[in-house]
Specification:
The protein is mainly beta. 14% of the residues lie in helices and 48% in strands. A hairpin with a 2-residue loop joins strand 5 and strand 6.
Length: 120
């Protein structure tokens, strides 16, 4: 699945999203995360100790995730914008770190469904 130009522009303008994973007890875990979009329109999530995080272990056990990026374009008038991406995630090791201080692990999300609001 590919993002539209408007969706790519929005994702490129944002610094944080929220990743929802499935915990070992079957319950949700939701975390704010930094992200990037790669050339294949997949979401890449990195961190300083990504391989040791609960979200990384959750993805290793259960790859179904949801990722949300949202903000308010305006409060008067009220204009929320958002993307919800549902898909399959992979917990990857030994990858090129995002930058200095980042660990060599990432979570890579392949979108299967995208819900958008307020972007077009």
């Amino acid at each position: 699945m590919r993002f539209t130009d408007a969706q790519l522009a929005y994702l490129g303008s944002q610094l944080l999203g929220r990743l929802a994973t499935v915990g070992p007890d079957g319950g949700p875990q939701n975390n704010p995360v930094g992200f990037r979009v790669d050339d294949s329109h997949r979401i890449l999530i990195g961190g300083r100790r990504m391989g040791g995080t609960r979200k990384f272990r959750n993805v290793q056990r259960h790859p179904r995730v949801a990722f949300v990026v949202d903000d308010l374009a305006s409060t008067k008038p009220w204009r929320p914008r958002m993307l919800e991406i549902r898909g399959t995630a992979e917990a990857l090791t030994d990858v090129e770190p995002f930058g200095e201080g980042y660990s060599p692990e990432i979570i890579r999300i392949t979108p299967e469904r995208v819900f958008a609001f307020g972007l077009e």
